[in-house]
Amino acid sequence: MDASKAKLAERMKLLIDSQTDKRGKFAQLESLTGIPAEGWKSFYYARQRPNPDMIEALAQTWPEYAFWMVTGIDDFFSGHTSPPTPGGLKSSLRERDAAKALFRKKIEYTRWQQKGSPDAEIGGNLYHSAEIQKQFVADIHDLESLRSSQEEALLSIEKKR
To answer: Would you say which domain of life the source belongs to (predicted)?
Structure first.
């Protein structure tokens, strides 16, 4: 199947197949997303269409593939790629790993905010929401800097090719 011509549901299945084990994929999806395995199975075997919760869950679980999943196109230079496929080319040198880490930290921060920005006990110590927010902002800033540095380095390599 040409993934660029596939519909959203087909790309979702390609993503699921590339990121989960063949056996137990639906239980694995339930564990990762909180959506019951039966719902994933119904979608996967075309008994139901994907619902917004499934689309959001896959996008948040694998944010580096979210743009590709919903549009069918890559934005490789921004860290939005298609998942690896059997027999497909893989250029690990050029993967934007810093972008993936940044996407995941921003999702974690958004989820924390959606919970009301609660205080948290971490390693036996109580941290107040202001401290947690400050740490999130610092981590995101560091990851943005790392992403920019990685992007500059990779672009300089790619220009030489």
So the answer is: Bacteria
